[in-house]
Structures are given as C-alpha cells and as structure tokens.
Amino acid sequence: MEITGQTNVLSQRFGSGSIDGLGRELGQFVVTSMEIPWRLVRDRLGAKPAAVLMVDSLELDVVERQIAAAPPCDTVLAVGGGQAIDLGKYMAFKRGCRLVTVPTIVSVDAFVTPKAAVRRNHRVEYLGGASPDPLVIDYDLIRTAPRQLNIAGVGDLLSIHTGTFDWELAHRAGRDAAEPFSADDVRRARDILRLVEEHADDIRQVTDAGLQAIVDGYLLINTVCLPAGHYRTEEGSEHYLFYELEERTGRAFIHGQIVGLGVYLLSRLQENRHAEVVSLMDRLGLEYQPADMQIDHDTLVASLTNLRSYVESRGLWYTVINERPITATWIDDALRGLRFA
Ligand SMILES: [Zn+2]
Fold it and tell me: Quick one: which of 232, 280, 296, 239 has its CA closest to 262?
C-alpha cells in the first residue's frame, strides 16, 4: 500500500530477509536492543556494531549515562520491541544521527511515532523526536515473536471505533475546543478500521499480509494524528479504562489486549455497534477477556464504578464516560458476557 501524507517514517523496507546485510549500509553504528531480539539478528547484519546498548531501564538518568558512554556513530540501529526502539529513538535524537529501526514484534506502535517514551521518576514522558530511515519490516523475523503479541498490535487500531465516536460526542457537546473536530480525520481513521476488517483472517494467522496491514494501519493513523497534533481518532474512553485499571492494580498489561477490553466495554456504553466490533475482535483472535489478563470480577467492577471520577479528576478528554452514567445495573449486564480470572 502506498502511504501518502505526513508520517514519521522517512523510508521503508518490507519483506522477509530484509535485515540480511543491513549492517553494511550503516557506516559506524551502535545498536540498541535486548538479549532475545539481538540474538535473532546479530549474525545476519553482515557487519559488527561499534557497541550494543541493552535496554536496562528507560529512566532518563540511566539512558543519558548509557548514551554518553557509547562510542561515536553515524547510525543508531534499534532492534526489538517498544523499549529498544524508544532507546534508539532517544539516542538518535541526542546524537543527531541517522536512525534505522527493526521492530521484531508489532505489538505497539513505537516504531512509527517520533517521540521516545522515557521515564522520569517512573512517570512516562515523551521526549525528543527521530524518524527511521529506513523502517525495516522483516516478516519472518516478526513472526518469531509470540503470535498473540503480534495480534495485540491491532488494539490501537480497533480503538478508532470508540475513539472517533467519543470525539464526535465531544463535538456535539461543545467540548472539543482544544482538539477541534474534523469529519475528514474521522473518515480517514475509519477507513483504517476497514483495512483491519478486510485483513482480519490474515491478521489472525499472522501472514505477511496480516503483519503488513497492522504496520500500514499504524502508518496511516499517524498521517491523521501527527498533522492534527493529537490522537483523538485513536484514543478515548477505551484507553481511560486501561489507565484506571493500570493505576488500580499497579500491573503492566499487554497494551492491545487491555485496549481491546476497553473497546468491548465502552462501545457498549456508547451503544456504538457493540456486537459488530466484538465479532471483529473475535475474528482477529485478539485476547481481550479479563481471564486472559488475570483481571478478576471485583477489580473490573471497582474500576468501572470509579471511572467517571477518575477521568474528571485528571481532566481527560470529554468522552462517553462524562456523558452516560455507569450504574451498578449497567456494569452487571455488561460484565455478564465476559470471562474472568
Ligand atoms: Zn494505545
């Protein structure tokens, strides 16, 4: 697919085997990675890096020290999942050098967004800005990651279903001043959801076409969100449930799965083609059941009960959560169709 419009990605290289010999084009290069992904690619690059920085922590002071101690380089080659890519993006930004990214899993969209998610005192901050040239998508390499984690990559695309609805709702309520509503952005975002739907079977089977659909979806949503300067088309009430749950439990979830649970519940609160989006999630083989994430019934009830005061106290975007009360009866009905730990 031809991706037109503004994305963060300067060039792309797709196909199985596309990492072979890549190291020979990078000049002096430093790798950011983790043990498992690095073991998968190190003998295929055709050249040795000047250094390999393993992700230890993304706390800013640790990252700064690691980068300061690294040798000079022309290129930062980031190999792995979200954290290895974030470290690579931040280092390329700090050094002002070329960035090449090789995601080994498509579970999160770190490889198409410009800013690096680093931590300051355990809080996420988005810093810097670096664009891959190229982004290298090697299907066989990505298929070595657990199938469920790659499928979870659709979570941040499925959230278009609830996110765009929330934005429309904010617009009708006159609560979209900071992120002025754009019908065109909504239309383009929903086209991405259709792309996911058309490739649902491929995504479930993690075929080349399925992986490509996820990557294209990420690239396309960034052509909508980067010019807009916000992520309203892909982030709304479904993400807010996840924020609440994460704070409540202190646990890290697989992003696409917990967002899937959010899409399940909040599409129902929205009365927004709930059955349709649930059947899509089932076709995709996405694990979104509380049982899949070791969430028990009481925890989810408490989280939903607290959700409105949670979003109000944090001044989050106006969504269905502000508009429709989440009552005990509603929760009872909504949770009946779910499986629990
Ligand atoms: Zn997300």
Answer: 239
